[in-house]
Amino acid sequence: MRLFLALALTLAACSTPQSIPLTNVAAGHEVSLGRAAGTTNLFVQGRDEIFEYTRHGRLVHSMPLGKEPAPGGGLAFDNSGYLYATSDYFDVAVFAPQSRQLARTISNGIYEPLTLAVDRSDNLYVANGQNGAGDIAIFRPGASTPSTTITQGIYDPESLAFDSSGNLYVGNGLYADTVTVYSPNGTLLRTITDGVRDPESIALDANDDLFVANTEDGEGRTVTVYKAGTTKLAQTITDHIQCPQALTVDTAGNLYVANWENSTATIYAAKTRKLLRTISKNVAAPWVIAVDSTDHLYVGDMGRAPQVSVYSPERHRPQRTIPSDNQWIPIALSFGSP
């Protein structure tokens, strides 16, 4: 019953294209992704398992998750190579480096986890939904009980990101329509409301400029931009934006957007935010995206044939495609050491 409700709530956030069968759609939220180094592997989270692939698409490991899938997707690595993943309605799974064996599960302070992230000090942040309210539970390295729980300003936290100073940004979803910013000790610094409408995904560039994907219950047509340290709307991107489900930024500051409703991934120039190119080949229902250190784009697609397509810089056709073979629907992507 919980899985059914999670699916229904997600579909309400972004209406499903008629070409996509409901059985091929899963709940999930894009999490802020680390940049991939040349020797890293690709990790794809499905509803029941995580799959690890080489950069050439060869399957290396599969890691089972909980029996009752979490309502959202989240993958993150710490500096020691431990992998954290939303696993169950009341669990986060921790997998050991290299062996990928389950090292432990964290359940204290976990309920309806929508996404997660790890900061540069290896603290784990878990965004708990709790039926439209929620909190951010923070765990020190190796801990099984949260050291801090943030509740002020938190409501349906859908997305997490960190700036260069270690401040935490939280995208609070439909009915809250805010991005809240917290110091490393959990103090609320500011609340951004101008132009924010159901922030399904957020991202920051190297200048700490903030980008917000506004899904607006499936009607979203904007990605909004905010200068570092401010709450005032600086720019609105609308060109080819339609239900922006996921965001990421490359090393040059170019912005990448997965547009669910018009089945595209779009790329915008740094600073000007002018549309550089639109990718539609092999894109049907894009849910998550990532960019590696060589600026190759990875698009996780929930279409009739779920897959991850990889695009070289400046190319519109995929360099290669990693098919799911009916094993997964991509709800989160990340990169980690083999």
Structure description:
- The chain is mainly beta and 338 residues long.
- It is 4% helix and 42% strand.
- The chain has one helix and 28 strands.
- It has one helix at residues 2-13; strands spanning 41-45, 49-53, 59-64, 75-77, 83-88, 91-95, 102-106, 113-118, 124-128, 135-139, 148-150, 157-162, 168-172, 178-182, 188-192, 199-204, 210-214, 222-226, 233-237, 244-249, 255-259, 264-268, 275-279, 286-291, 297-301, 307-311, 320-323, 332-336.
- The strands form seven sheets. A four-stranded antiparallel sheet has the order 3-2-1-28, with no helix packed on it. Strands 4-5-6-7 form a four-stranded antiparallel sheet, with no helix packed on it. It has a four-stranded antiparallel sheet with strand order 8-9-10-11, with no helix packed on it.
- Strand 22 (264-268) and strand 23 form a beta hairpin.
- The model is unreliable at 1-13 and 15-37 (pLDDT under 50).
Strand content: 35-45%
Number of strands: 28
Q: What order do the SSEs take from the amino end to the carboxyl end, as H and E? A: HEEEEEEEEEEEEEEEEEEEEEEEEEEEE
Structural class: mainly beta
Overall geometry comes to globular
Percent helix range: under 10%
Task: Figure out the total of helices.
Answer: 1
Question: Which quaternary structure do these chains form?
Answer: single chain
Average of per-residue pLDDT values: 88
The largest sheet, given as strand count, sense and whether it forms a barrel, is:
4 strands, antiparallel
